[in-house]
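Figure 2 data, in text form.
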Amino acid sequence: INEIGAEKWAAICSDSTAITKNSCREITAHIPTMLDFNDVCHHQHNTIKDVMKLECFGWMISLLKVIVKHFSKSMISIAHLHKECHVEGDDHTVNSLQKISKTHFGTHWPAAVSLQQCLTNIKTLVENKIVKFKVQVWYTMFGCDLETYITTVGPFICSLWSLEVSHANALDIFIFWLAIGASLKDLVKKGDGARSNVPLSLMYDVIAIYDCHWKELFQNDVYFTAFALDPHMPATPIDSQCPKLINTQLQVTPYLILSSSLWSLLQPLPYLHRSSLHPKIWNILGKWLSIHCHILVPIAV
């Protein structure tokens, strides 16, 4: 860091292990212009793992592994599966079953989706004794649990894949986590019954996991600050109900904070106007910006 120049480093990012977290804290304490970020993709993967540990998914996950592993090792079974799909009149070849990888994030979900697409065909092959598994499969129950898993974990996977891009920033992280919460809220609104294949009791467990990981990830207010200052975000109903706190325009210009960390991470921020934000939002913004601008202004000078 010193060889390259501390002023050229915008931030540091690490996974959730104790050693790397402590190392990041020491570095940012020594170089206060560097922001401390969590590895959001690793964090979301750990969230998905906690959801998969719920008791209702245990049997389904173990069976998913057995079926996918069987077809990954048996070319004859794959050939029979392709043939069965063509017998049903499909014009396209069945999608290949996705393998479960130990070195990639969230691979159980694409494996579950690929298996769901041909589960009926696999059931037919087993009933005709063309394909055999070492364990007994109750396809109706397994199919329901598979659909529940896909629906529940889907928002986390979509967010994880979206945030794996190289240009994702603090604003994107906050927005995608909000999107996960909104998706879970929609599933709760559907409730038990014909409108939803996800039991409410399961949703409450998933939301508890989501809340726990939310608190763990967003200990740094940089994510919320990036979200609140983004000029593309329209005023929310909460904003419009609050009294106007300020009638002047808040301007954050590049020369104030140089072209380094804060500016590059919170783009775009040339001119911002928030006349009716909630008081708590202003408190968070004021505290975070005052601390970091106070650190960065001497560098610009």
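Caption note: Strands lie at 11-14, 35-38, 250-251, 271-272.
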